[in-house]
Amino acid sequence: MDVAKELADYAAANTTAVLDRPNPIVIDAGLLAAFDNTPVDADEYGSNLNTHLLALTLTSTQALISSLFTLPTKSSSSGPITLLPAPSTLLPREKPLPKPKPLTKWERFAKEKGISHKKKEKHVWDDEKQEWVARWGKDGKNREKEGQWLTEIKAGEEADQDPSSTARSERKARIAKNQKQQAANIAAAANHSSDATATSSRGGVSTLSQEQKKNLRERRKEELKRSMILSKTSTASLGKYDKAIKDEPKVKGLKRKFEPTVTNKNDFKGEKEHALDVLHKLETGVGKVKKSKKGGEGDEGGLNVRKAVRFQGKVDRASGGGASAGKKGKRK
Length: 332
Prior knowledge:
This protein is mainly α. It is built from eight helices and eight strands. Among the domains are: about 5-75, no CATH class; about 210-255. InterPro entries: Ribosom_reg (IPR007023). Belongs to the RRS1 family.
């Protein structure tokens, strides 16, 4: 066994000598990447592939590491850190560009009218407290009227109303309106996205698969059937005497039931039970709409004290004899 030859072969296979490249290696320190644009040597590539690839990798890695030592550094608790520049190589996207978000009803109106939208700040200046307070939320500026200890009553307003409850009801109504508009915008955006998917093949080859096209056709067919059934039930005869259409779906549902006008003269049991049932409902008040008691005052069938006081106040102000007639101002 020739040890010297074995050592020489090992040193040749694990050499650290870099290759001379006709074209300089392009370094992108921001991505920690090195690009060798020199054409591959066919003889070296075919005769000794692994050794040649190792030499190319070593050359590119040596050039990359040498470029990192020329960059600025900063000290840290773990030691010096190299500050990498911004990447200069443009890489392709992994995923397609996001589709533009559908405009809401207000955004479409503002775009047509040329109205510029200015985003509101989360905090506003309070002149009384001399500090910045939250615009919304707990202790927000929008709840300022709900906690006032003194409220001015404007002309035409009821003197015995609760300003705090009125302000809270108005705020809750605004919240409900905003939530309703938000739900409408979400539904409109969903419809817009489905329409865009259906019309994605107008400019060229369709991007939908056969399964997606089949599902889309089935969904349209079900919508047409539903619309046809709804239009049939809009008539008094529930579509019984309407002209039938080809391949019209059969309506499945409950039929209206009518009581017979002529009964057996010896059998009046059914008619008697029906009349007694109606009389029982009238006596017990079944089916009557119960009005809610405003403010939780007054018993059912009794006197609503709050309503009576308000009515008497109106009468006194109208006659001019009330103690509070014509008084406007502030109240606690």
